[in-house]
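Entry 12.
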Amino acid sequence: MARYHGPVCKLCRREGEKLFLKGARCFSPKCAFERRGYAPGMHGKSSQFRSKRESDYHRQLRAKQKARRVYGVLERQFRRYYEDTIKKRGLTGLMMLQILESRLDNVVFRLGFAGSRAEARTLVTHGHFMVNGRRVDIPSMQVSVGDVVAVREGSHRRTYFKNLPELAESRNAPNWLGRDLKGLSGTVLRQPERSEIDANLSEQSIVEYYSR
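Predicted 3D structure (tokens):
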């Protein structure tokens, strides 16, 4: 399974904002963005003093790159999501974000069962979750309305999952997901609305980028 293995804090610095890719660390003084909030590279520090004017292409590219990095998706798969949505009726940008939100690793993260999407991806890959009673290990699997995502019974004995109800309770699950902390499971109640998805993502700019 292809994935990005480089330093994720550089991704936040490149986008000029926190993308919260490392879970709790992003809220601590150890966060690299707090210490070095400028773009990486030899000219990164000086770039913050340059003119803020940018071309349409640059704006569209940055919007696309930010969404890819937030959800941990590589370019080929991200483009395939776009190509799938343009074949359907509806708002292309919104449908694309809904596809990203419906990834199994994102659902696990949204339920509060992982501190970050990267951690959720690892947990799914190691086979700790089931969908509708079947063990799955594909983070990009699309879950549908009515699907039940649950921690595998054999994983309940592990220390991480023993402490999970208390950790998950501190995080609110979105309204489009139903959550059972005692049973460590969740149900997809409906498709997420735009207001329930990261407001800092610009789906219109992403569509414009691929429509060039």
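Annotation: The CA atoms of residues 106 and 117 lie 6 Å apart. The longest strand covers residues 148-151.
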